[in-house]
């Protein structure tokens, strides 16, 4: 019998960010392993014209939840969406809903966040810091609360090279930052943002670090744990391999490369690609929830959920295997044949951005214009290059994360729990995982059918022929221009032709002699 699964049985669980990538995998696993849980409250906002119920319906009817209705037939009754916007005071939760949450909740998983790197500081602080503070305030009024699990990121202290499972201070207290956001205007906030974030690359990592400090400061008398995953990738094993539903992390890059838009990227090939599968993060999160509630450690434990120190993979290995998988399962309607390389200097990056990215985009836009359509490829390309520049920080450095707490947690699990809530990344086969990643991107993000693979191959063959024809035509045009205008080119051409003629004559003469 799994102790962790049994622990969640009969419990009332509150999840924020349940409509997000990790939140959905977390909910699925909870229903699959503890179908007798009492209820899952999820804080949801209406979005893109969808009501809360429509959003929940969409999640429950998605491929990810395919088997849940069999395991937990009354799953609809066990999810209770609560209308909430974490940007609002008290999250805009109604009085009745708030009373129910406060009186019933046993466990909180706080996953909601803004994960955008370019969010203005005010918005990132509101969601990643102030909302965390408010949720802790709510948690402190929950008499039945057993554990509060906060999802942070392994990159919250990415300004350090070696990161321990501790909370590091920031130069300005989070409370001061929260206060200042209330009276400073946007222009001033924009001006002071670079000074505040210091040697961190963006507002996301900075506000996640502030969020951790808030958790530490506001969690008196509560059982709290912080999970710090690195770059969360698609599922490794559960409920099935390769599930992914957003463009974050490497997924967008894989699409851009597979569709032939991206031909080079500035990356350090030997830097560690610290990816961690979503189901591994969820298993560790659930195990930490159980441990925190049952063993009640004296201080807040931080768990690094990373792969680099136990089973490292680097960007070169990842890149090469992504490209090899494109050969087996090409994406449909590619712009160019997928073929990419890493650049390592400013000069080569700018050169290849011009030659391999912008020039083909301009040529294609000319073709669109000539055929009476609206040019759009250069705009798309510039956006892609801008977005990639925001990720570059993370693919040109390596970090070391210590994992003592994570290893301790693994060691206290029963063999049954180690199997059901497996977070031992040493067992991960990277080649298999990356192949499933590319397949998952094709199936679940691009919604492409496997039956379309022969046509996609044909399309790539056509692109290859166009590429060869284009190169031959370009060569002849340049040659004609040179020979027509430049005596030196004529001399070189005459020399090459006469050399070939002499070589052929010699070859013919020597073969006649042999006979
Ligand atoms: C010798 C041979 C060598 C071989 C080499 C081969 C080389 C290449 C082959 C391919 C290889 C792949 C392997 C290497 C790749 C390197 C990968 C690099 C990844 C590094 C990731 C680092 C992450 C690190 C760290 C931290 C981890 C975390 O804690 S947080 C989670 C991660 N967060 C993110 O990733 C967020 C990043 N994104 C953003 O901040 C923003 O989206 C953006 C700033 C990048 C883009 O903003 P922008 O305003 O331009 O676009 P936006 O409006 O957001 O979107 C445009 C349209 O796209 C849709 N969209 C965008 N994002 C998503 C999403 N997540 N889910 C769904 N849809 C999304 C959006 O809706 C828009 O659509 P429209 O509205 O229709 O326009
Ligand atoms: N993905 C990754 O690579 C990593 C993620 N993490 C952390 O894991 C956690 C989950 O990340 P992930 O699932 O990828 O993120 P997603 O962006 O997929 O999900 C974010 C969730 O937060 C919710 N949310 C955002 N703003 C609000 C709001 N104002 N009110 C209510 N809900 C809101 C979103 O709801 P809605 O659907 O309405 O937008 C969504 O459910 C985050 O804390 C993140 O920092 C850590 C390391 C890596």
From TrEMBL:
Keywords: Lipid biosynthesis, Lipid metabolism, Membrane, NADP, Oxidoreductase, Peroxisome, Transmembrane, Transmembrane helix. It is an enzyme of class 1 (oxidoreductase). Residues 357-448 form the Fatty acyl-CoA reductase C-terminal domain. GO terms for biological process: long-chain fatty-acyl-CoA metabolic process; wax biosynthetic process. It is a single-pass membrane protein. Residues 15-284 form the Thioester reductase (TE) domain. Its EC number is 1.2.1.84. This is Fatty acyl-CoA reductase. The keyword Membrane applies. Coiled coil: none annotated. Belongs to the fatty acyl-CoA reductase family. It is found in: Peroxisome membrane. Catalyzes the reduction of fatty acyl-CoA to fatty alcohols.
């Amino acid at each position: 019998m799994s102790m962790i699964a049994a622990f969640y049985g009969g419990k009332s669980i509150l999840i924020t960010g349940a409509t997000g990538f990790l939140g959905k995998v977390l909910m699925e696993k909870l229903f699959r392993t503890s179908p007798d849980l009492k209820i899952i409250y999820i804080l949801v906002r209406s979005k893109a014209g969808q009501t809360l119920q429509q959003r929940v319906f969409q999640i429950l009817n998605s491929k990810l939840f395919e088997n849940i209705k069999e395991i937990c037939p009354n799953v609809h009754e066990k999810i209770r969406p609560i209308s909430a916007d974490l940007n609002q005071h008290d999250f805009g939760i109604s009085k009745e809903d708030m009373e129910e949450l406060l009186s019933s909740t046993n466990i909180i998983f706080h996953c909601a966040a803004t994960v955008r790197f370019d969010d203005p500081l005010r918005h990132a602080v509101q969601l990643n810091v102030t909302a965390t503070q408010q949720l802790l305030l709510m948690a402190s009024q929950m008499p039945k609360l057993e554990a509060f699990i906060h999802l942070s990121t392994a990159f919250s202290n990415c300004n350090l090279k070696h990161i321990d499972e501790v909370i590091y201070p920031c130069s300005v207290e989070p409370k001061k930052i929260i206060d200042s956001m209330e009276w400073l205007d946007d222009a001033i906030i924009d001006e002071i943002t670079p000074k505040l974030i210091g040697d961190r690359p963006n507002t996301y990592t900075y506000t996640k670090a502030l969020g951790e400090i808030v958790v530490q400061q506001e969690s008196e008398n509560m059982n709290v744990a912080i999970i710090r995953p690195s770059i969360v990738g698609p599922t490794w094993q559960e409920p099935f391999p390769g599930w992914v539903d957003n463009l974050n992390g490497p997924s967008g890059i894989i699409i851009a490369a597979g569709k032939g838009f991206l031909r080079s990227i500035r990356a350090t090939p030997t830097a560690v690609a610290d990816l961690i599968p979503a189901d591994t993060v969820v298993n560790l999160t659930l195990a930490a929830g159980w441990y925190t509630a049952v063993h009640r450690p004296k201080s807040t434990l931080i768990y690094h959920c990373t792969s680099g120190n136990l089973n490292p993979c680097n960007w070169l290995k990842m890149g090469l295997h992504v490209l090899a998988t494109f050969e087996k399962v090409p994406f449909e309607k590619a712009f160019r044949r997928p073929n990419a390389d890493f650049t390592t200097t400013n000069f080569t990056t700018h050169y290849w951005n011009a030659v391999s990215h912008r020039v083909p985009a301009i040529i294609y836009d000319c073709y669109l214009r000539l055929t009476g359509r609206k040019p759009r490829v250069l705009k798309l390309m510039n956006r892609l290059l801008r977005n990639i520049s925001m990720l570059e920080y993370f693919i040109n450095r390596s970090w070391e994360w210590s994992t003592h707490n994570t290893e301790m947690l693994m060691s206290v699990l029963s063999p049954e729990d180690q199997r059901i809530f497996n977070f031992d990344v040493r067992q991960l086969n990277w080649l298999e995982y990356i192949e499933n990643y590319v397949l998952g991107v094709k199936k679940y993000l691009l919604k492409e059918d496997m039956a379309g693979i022969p046509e996609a191959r044909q399309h790539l063959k056509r692109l290859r022929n166009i590429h060869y024809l284009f190169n031959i035509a370009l060569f002849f045009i340049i040659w004609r221009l040179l020979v027509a205008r430049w005596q030196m080119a004529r001399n070189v051409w005459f020399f090459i032709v006469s050399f070939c003629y002499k070589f052929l004559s010699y070859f013919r003469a020597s073969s006649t002699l042999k006979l």
